Amino acid sequence: MTRDDLPRIPLLINGEFVQSRTTEWRDVINPATQQRLARVPMATPEEVEAAIAAAREAFKTWRKTPIGQRARIFLKYQQLIRDNIKSLAATLTAEQGKTLADAEGDVFRGLEVVEHAAGIGLLQMGERAHNVAGGVDTYTLLQPLGVCAGITPFNFPAMIPLWMFPMAIACGNTFVLKPSEQDPMVTMRLVELALEAGIPKGVLNVVHGGEPVVNALCDHADIKAVSFVGSTRVGTLVHDRATRAGKRVQCMMGAKNHAIVLPDAHKDQTLNALAGAAFGAAGQRCMAVSVAVLVGAARDWLPDLVEKARGLSVGAGDSATTDVGPLISCAARDRVEALIARGVEEGATLALDGRLPPLSGQLKEGNFVGPTIFSGVKPGMTIYDQEIFGPVLCVAEAATLDEAIALINANPNGNGTALFTQSGAAARRFEDEIDVGQVGINVPIPVPVPMFSFTGSRASKLGDLGPYGRQVVLFYTQTKTVTARWFDDASTGGVNTTISLK
């Protein structure tokens, strides 16, 4: 298929899918084969302005929509997603590369948030205190902010958009979404289903683009809140720029997630968990385990871990036998391979080299790196200090649990961590003393279910309220406190010049 024959990804403005008038387009590439799948526009400033204007106008009526009516839209939306989960996963795998099973998981974890949005009636309740003074009641209202924006990454093109716009819209806001330009097709299909579920025109809008579009969303006076998931570099820029413009901002950013293994852990279950969490999705998860800290006698488990990783199959995500798919782009592959070479240069031991995995046919053109393991890794090495975002596991050693906890707490990131043990006392000490926002006990990727909130911390997060759960309702609403007194008769009891309520 020639470039001119490729499908063109539309924008969504005021309830209509429209073709961009831009002169700048980028190809959407299947990372397993380099096949061009579609073309995505870099939206013009006028198109971004039109999307925001549509959201601003729609907010006037959407904010007054009864809460039950909003909830029913998301009840229908979750069923539409459920009915289409196989086709959504197939699209996701084609453009992003992860296995079909992992792609279904991507969609499902977003679906859980949509289900949570359908319960907005309970989530958006305020508080009330009766008779706080003579005849005086005080109560709070959680009211929508206005137009909100979301900027989402390539690695979860279904889940993370579904973290954002359903909760924002359920709270009574309108939304402008900017998906990753690298894999926007599954996101756009989810947007189509959202309209089918009954989201009115202008309530959800989509623009595509790079840095100029991101900057426009951060700067625009009509946007009241920005939610971002992506790299630390970009997230820091988004947070600083949008905050200066007076917006609420939440940025979930980079990580270096450690898993501590104590020698009393269940060995086979632990090795399976480490391999899955390190190499699943080709390591392209902000919650991937990228450092295993083997404590005491668990240091002897390294050969077994290497053999477990060596047994994983590398290939296209649409193959039922594939465990590890491709990286998102040629540039991502080149970066990961360069970091592997740097690790060797800096003295780490390459226990398993995943570069140039043996593949045939079209897959030779794909962005593949197989499972890779370094041992003898220490702080100060580039492979330890940087987020590799590939299928590379660094193995460090510690003599005791306390030494391992100190290692993790010295790292600037705080997205996720895990401990593998059968000791309740060790687990309790770990969860109490570790300075990381999300903790797993024998759970390698402790992303909470939607009743709770995503709570990464330190350098992994900017902004004090996380995505989904109760925290995101507070993020997407303004608390208004009302103090009211109703008199039984016309008597005022005289002039009160004090601040007290009597």
From TrEMBL:
It is an enzyme of class 1 (oxidoreductase). PROSITE patterns: ALDEHYDE_DEHYDR_CYS. The keyword Protein biosynthesis does not apply. GO terms for biological process: L-valine catabolic process; thymine catabolic process. Residues 18-482 form the Aldehyde dehydrogenase domain. Its EC number is 1.2.1.27. SUPFAM superfamilies: ALDH-like (SSF53720). Keywords: NAD, Oxidoreductase. CDD domains: ALDH_F6_MMSDH. GO terms for molecular function: methylmalonate-semialdehyde dehydrogenase (acylating, NAD) activity. PANTHER family: MALONATE-SEMIALDEHYDE DEHYDROGENASE, METHYLMALONATE-SEMIALDEHYDE DEHYDROGENASE [ACYLATING], MITOCHONDRIAL. NCBIfam families: MMSDH. Belongs to the aldehyde dehydrogenase family. This is methylmalonate-semialdehyde dehydrogenase (CoA acylating).
